[in-house]
């Protein structure tokens, strides 16, 4: 009976559908890795092969700046010069700054909406939730004009400014979790003379590691992949983040065609941090979303 249940037609069909979706999802990633490991001269000849015939890490060395332009051209690269190592550092600073500021501001706002009583609280919270329905493209022009008037073009401050406070989803998500924390813990601290700020920092925050990590990870992935705003604000190569550097590398074709192996090597470097985050914290994110949504 147990064996019949394990190999029922419905279960087999479900696993087959999952495997097909997994293959569809992972095939593009594998094509990126395969192309990054290929010799530039073999890109078109081995385009239909599953594995590269002569794998090499030289493409990663090229895009990270460990080869000269002459050495890059000698092995078949385009000779395009983009400092991906600097772009990687810019992306780390850009993403980490936004994650720290946004998680800090969103958690304080969410706790205020969950526990404090003040005039207009529900209206203000409704506005925060309603902000999720405003397309981001609507705010690009006003934000750009503001950043330009403040003289913050081509600066990290100008890139970070529109994202550094809080997002409607982050406030809503954390508020749902804070509402689930037993009030008895906070009331006991109030009886001991603790302030709301002390309770938030020493009682609520330690109990909220999972949802805070979830918001930090989701925000980090979004900001790591952000392209349009850094591209619009920071034209200087010194301030380029990885997605913008990838676009610049693709358009620089001194030999007349894109350097596909170098481009895929840089893409693999760009994708790797998000994959590591999902592998490390993916289950925690799912559990946190299910818990907050259930409340």
General description of the model:
By secondary structure, this protein is mainly alpha-helical. Helix content is 70%, strand content 0%. The protein has 15 helices and no strands. The chain has helices spanning 2-6, 9-36, 58-63, 69-74, 84-115, 121-130, 136-149, 156-160, 168-180, 183-191, 196-207, 209-224, 228-233, 242-251, 260-294. Helix 2 packs antiparallel against helix 15, helix 5 crosses helix 9 (168-180) and helix 5 packs antiparallel against helix 14 (242-251). The chain is globular. The two termini are 38 Å apart.
Summarize the structure.
This protein is mainly α and about 300 residues long. The protein has 15 helices and no strands.
Task: Supply the key terms.
15 helices; mainly alpha; 295 residues
User: Helical proportion?
Assistant: over 70%
Order of helices and strands: HHHHHHHHHHHHHHH
How would you describe the oligomerization state of the chains in this entry?
A: single chain
Average residue-wise pLDDT? 83
Number of helices: 15
According to DSSP, the number of beta strands is: 0
CA(first)-CA(last) distance:
38 Å
Low-confidence stretches: none
Structural class of the secondary structure composition? mainly alpha
Estimate what percentage of residues fall within beta strands. under 5%
Global geometry: globular
Query: Sheet bearing the most strands, described?
Result: none
Radius of gyration, in Å, reads 24 Å
SSE arrangement:
Elements: H1 2-6, H2 9-36, H3 58-63, H4 69-74, H5 84-115, H6 121-130, H7 136-149, H8 156-160, H9 168-180, H10 183-191, H11 196-207, H12 209-224, H13 228-233, H14 242-251, H15 260-294
Helix pairs in contact: 2-15, 5-9, 5-12, 5-14, 6-9, 9-15, 10-11, 12-15, 14-15
